[in-house]
Amino acid sequence: MDAKTELILIRITGLDRPGLTASFTEILSGYDVTIMDIGQANIHSTLSLGILFKSPKADSGNIMKELLFKASDFGVNIRFYPVPVEEYEDWVSRQGKDRYILTLLGRKLSAKQITAVTHILADQELNIDAIKRLTGRQPLDESKAGVRACIEFSLRGTPRDREELQRELMKLSSELEVDFSFQRDNMYRRMRRLICFDMDSTLIQTECIDELAERAGVGEQVRAITESAMRGEIDFKESFAKRVALLKGLDVSVMQEIAETMPITEGVERLMFVLKRYGYKIAILSGGFTFFGEYLQKKYGIDYVYANELEVEDGKLTGRYLGDVVDGKRKAELLRLIAQVEKVDIAQTIAVGDGANDLPMLSLAGLGIAFHAKPKVVANARQSINTIGLDGVLYFLGFKDSYLEERGKL
Prior knowledge:
Blueprint: E1 5-15, H1 20-29, E2 34-43, E3 46-56, H2 57-74, E4 77-82, H3 85-93, E5 99-106, H4 111-123, E6 127-133, E7 149-156, H5 162-176, E8 179-184, E9 194-197, H6 208-216, H7 219-230, H8 236-245, H9 253-260, H10 268-277, E10 281-289, H11 290-300, E11 304-313, E12 316-322, H12 328-341, E13 349-353, H13 359-364, E14 367-371, H14 375-380, E15 383-385, H15 393-396, H16 401-406
Parallel strand pairs: 9-10, 9-13, 10-11, 13-14, 14-15
Antiparallel strand pairs: 1-3, 1-4, 2-3, 5-7, 5-8, 6-7, 11-12
Helix pairs in contact: 1-2, 4-5, 6-7, 7-8
């Protein structure tokens, strides 16, 4: 930049109204001005507009005079800041650094939560470029059903210690009841295409094998084995065979009754509608049973279902199953296989689950989310949702309530 030009940053704040930005940029358009950077945000009808421009020094006085008059007409404040060349070049040099997105999610977000998060980011030498709200306007009555709050931080830099950052966020999540997702901001994050769900205690708020066991009169025995398996204390295949054996003699008509009364997890209806609307391929990869997975498949238009099939003879369960058990290893294999069939890069996949047998697919997927998960799963997952329903996944994908509302998606 030669000595005859200069860089000027203007900041405009005040009550927002239509035509304000157009009026100020129209003044700049009357001169030989190059816009170097521009940004605008609105918080509760209050505008904050910043424009960095390069102009001939000879025009600077007239430009600032016209801008001041226009600010007076609109009743807004305007400030001018000359920017040294060295400062600008240092700012440009930082643009090549890594970018990340940190999403915070909860029933509500407090100053205490945000303070804790921003201190962690500062300690990790990450700079906040922007903050935006993804959820709709917050009601004053926090007790209303379905209330949730989500904000997204756009970050620049390289974490000083990525694993330490993860541990600190997980600790914060547990202590302050806030969910988070920390993702690299790249093209894969913006182009997710395949999402795989566990079924029991994820899409539905029960374990189907426990429901079957209750009808068979062995509920307590099966429930104890299930809980131990989900905590990762015993081998899944071994536990599965033991539980299925206890169901011997149960009439298959019971399965339809259970399917029709399964408690669907909060947010599933909304999540499935949006995912289908935006072209995602959806799979159920479950250590549960095909009968219940196929029931949900018909209900929500799910593309793939892989689960375990119970053997039936003369209308009753035999206490055996058919084929290989869908355990944690098999879930990861199936995720990879479906991605290949759909020609989706593994980085474009999402996996959501709650149990220890979900960890392999959560680790493999481009975005693995622990949902109201067991402690072992939360401790090993990079993203978790514990405070709201399953539609919280949408915020981790970058969806905004306002965008969905405009298209009648809620």
